[in-house]
Specification:
With 584 residues, the chain is an alpha+beta fold. Helix 4 crosses helix 5, helix 5 packs across helix 6 and helix 6 runs antiparallel to helix 7. A 7-stranded antiparallel beta sheet has the order 16-15-14-13-12-17-18. A 5-stranded mixed beta sheet has the order 1-2-3-4-5, sandwiched between helices. The protein has 12 helices and 26 strands.
Length: 584
């Protein structure tokens, strides 16, 4: 029972570890702050939903408070106040946490020296509180002070032995054994929960790793018959790596310059690398404990990208344009940290690196127009519009979401990257699509630009003019229609009609209302027995122009005119000649 825990004889490190782990298990998103010159006197930090923080200051004092102990407590309290003021943190609660319940004299001292001089709530979490935590979580004390760690390691060996069972002809027996071992292991390990799944050798797609929040480790073991078992360790709280990291030693080697750079980035900034060969492993989970020594053990290892429960979004700003970059990853390594983000269309990518010692920061911006195909039109336009603005201004700043500058350096802009001649055609194209998208009655995505034809783009430009209330005047050659009577038509003749305004976007036809058009026809090809369509033909002699404009609202009496053509006198289109689009 926790009442038998010998707090008085335990070392300071043991007390602080047990109490901190109990707190982190109560508040799974809490942060354990490692002791350093810049820790601000914070041992455990809990971020509240309202933007404030709670701080738990853990002390090892278990007998009584003398003048020395009181000075240490006051010093820690002062450091927290100073740190929060300097960092702009809103401290809501400060808890003195130690395995000692206060006397009346202790409370008077605490109230006079700390509580009365604080503009935040201060409280004493003593022995009663801590023993309530350890009673509810006995595995914490057992693991870090008693023999619980050895028990966990033995249970891991049993789980690994079961995963290598040579005879898997009874899958139910294996599955039950694996689940029982994983359930027991999860109950005695205060840091990790374990999940297992067995995969048939006939399941070709089953050996896949599924990344998810707090998944720390995933490994597969395949026996001689081809059956596999996947074992996964899931962190019970966010700060688990501070208390019980899963350690593994071996030689990771890279045989290409690209692989070597990945390993270097991993060491320096913590960025995950793709699959790498590794040999002579000695780890907690990765390999079973062999009865016989092995000369060489070969395997492969890869790191999954971290899933950050609190991703950071930043904004790229250029003149009056801006684009929000959502976090893709945030990692930490030996020399610094890296943040990467991209816009909603996955066009613009940013990589921000900061070295801890020198505080040197670099920003790399790249963009990929091939990501535009299939993107939502508004987000694709926003990305290209920002690039177009940045190419003109040559002025880009990275900011936080509340407008605070995060990075600015004119030298970071690659002249080739922000080449106006490269960006301008995409800007024109996406501007057309944005205009059409805003006028459409339904949503659609960008087409496959690799298969886009120039004739489609020309029609998009015409549609843009029509949507802006302008007339479209172009030359025409032939026009097909279905004749609904045997009436003879004398040529030349004037023709007009009302049609649905349809624009092709990839494999979609987008409805934009109606348009009215008129032209002069010089002759007609009558339908054959196999084809009921007639074909009208133009002629330069009677001005081979087609004039079109958009109808904002179709009158009720005109609805029966849609998709029909009407014949009348020859029209005088000479006034439109100077506005006609040249033949291409």
């Amino acid at each position: 029972m926790s009442s038998c825990i010998p707090w008085v004889t335990m070392s300071g490190d043991e007390i602080e570890t047990v109490v901190a782990v109990c707190l982190c298990k109560q508040f799974p998103d809490a942060q354990r702050i490692r002791p350093s010159r810049g820790d601000g006197g914070i041992d455990v930090r809990v971020d509240n939903e309202d933007g404030t923080i709670d701080v738990y200051q853990i002390k090892k004092f278990a007998v009584n408070l003398g003048s020395s102990e009181k000075r240490q407590i006051i010093e820690s309290w002062r450091r927290v106040k100073k740190y929060c003021n300097e960092q702009g943190l809103r401290l809501k609660n400060w808890y003195l946490t130690l395995p000692l319940d206060p006397t009346n004299e202790n409370l008077e001292w605490f109230n006079e020296n700390i509580r009365s001089n604080s503009d935040f709530h201060c409280a004493w979490k003593g022995l009663t509180n801590i023993e309530a935590w350890t009673s509810a979580m006995p595995e914490v004390y057992n693991y870090y002070v008693a023999n619980g760690m050895e028990t966990v390691n033995q249970q891991i060996k049993m789980l690994l032995d079961a995963a290598q069972k040579p005879d898997l002809r009874d899958p139910n027996e294996l599955t039950k054994k694996l689940f029982d071992d994983a359930k027991l292991l999860s109950s005695i390990d205060p840091n990790y929960a374990y999940s297992v799944r067995s995969i048939s050798k006939y399941d070709k797609g089953g050996l896949v790793f599924f990344n998810r929040p707090r998944l720390v480790y995933s490994t597969s073991i395949t026996n001689g018959e081809g059956y596999s078992v996947v074992i996964e360790a899931i962190a019970k709280y966010k700060a688990v790596a501070e208390f019980a990291p899963i350690k593994e030693s071996g030689i990771v080697y890279a045989d290409t310059p690209e692989k070597k750079q990945e390993l270097l980035d991993f060491r320096q900034y913590g960025t995950p690398f793709t699959e790498m060969p590794i040999k002579n492993l000695e780890g907690n989970l990765r390999l079973p404990l062999f009865d016989e020594p092995q000369d060489e053990v070969l395997s492969r290892i890869r790191l999954l990208e971290q899933i950050d429960p609190h991703p950071l979004s930043l904004t790229l700003v250029s003149r009056d344009a801006h684009i929000v970059l959502k976090q893709r990853s945030r990692t930490y390594g030996q020399i610094g940290a890296e943040w990467t983000g991209e816009d909603e269309a996955h066009v613009i990518h940013a990589r921000l690196r900061t070295e801890v010692d020198s505080l040197k920061t670099t920003l790399q911006i790249t963009f990929h127009f091939n990501a535009l195909s299939g993107s939502e039109v508004p987000s694709a336009f926003n990305a290209v519009n920002f690039l177009y603005t940045a190419a003109q201004s040559k002025d880009v700043e990275l900011q936080t979401m509340d407008g605070e500058p995060a990075y600015f350096d004119p030298e970071c802009l690659d002249a080739y990257l922000f080449d106006q001649e490269k960006i301008h055609p995409w800007y024109e194209l996406l501007s057309l699509l944005k205009t059409i998208h805003d006028a459409a009655s339904r949503d659609f995505r960008c087409p496959d630009f690799a298969t886009l034809k120039s004739s489609q783009v020309r029609r998009w430009k015409e549609i843009e003019h029509l949507l802006n209330g302008e007339q479209v005047i172009r030359h025409w050659d032939t026009l097909k229609f279905t004749k609904d009577s045997n009436e003879c038509i004398s040529f030349p003749t004037g023709v007009y009609g009302i049609s649905k305004l349809i624009v092709p976007i990839g494999d979609q036809d987008v409805f934009l209302g109606y348009s009215q058009w008129w032209l002069n026809a010089a002759s007609i090809t009558e339908p054959s027995d196999t084809n009921r369509e007639c074909v009208l033909h133009s002629s330069v002699d009677i001005c081979d122009l087609l004039v079109e404009h958009r109808i904002k609202a179709l009158k009720r009496e005109d609805r029966d005119k849609v998709s029909r053509i009407f014949i009348g006198p020859v029209l005088d289109l000479s006034a439109y000649q100077q506005y006609a689009v040249p033949v291409q």
